[in-house]
Amino acid sequence: MCLNVFYRASNHQAAGTGLGLAIVHNIVQQLGASIQLSVPVSGKGLIVQVQFPLSLFPFCK
Fold first, then answer.
1. What is the pLDDT of residues 25-38, one digit of tens each?
2. Cα diameter, the chain
């Protein structure tokens, strides 16, 4: 879906290549993190949440 390369919503209004979320998804996976997408209550836009494992940040322990 939204995380596929070149994916564009059928009702897109802004210019873009459809690469942004696919690139983010790839980086997040390589780091062992997770990504979650959701639509706000207003139905406009997109909420992107990325969770990184604490093991990536040893100084936070």
1. 889 999 999 999 89
2. 44
d(CA 45, CA 48): 10
For the whole prediction, is pTM greater than 0.70?
no
| Sign of the alpha-carbon dihedral angle for 55, 56, 58, 59 | negative
Q: How far, CA to CA in Å, does 24 sit from each of 9, 47, 55, 59?
A: 17, 14, 20, 24
Q: What is the Cβ-side half-sphere exposure of residue 3, based on CA atoms within 13 angstroms?
A: 12
Handedness of CA 22, 20, 35, 33 (dihedral sign): positive
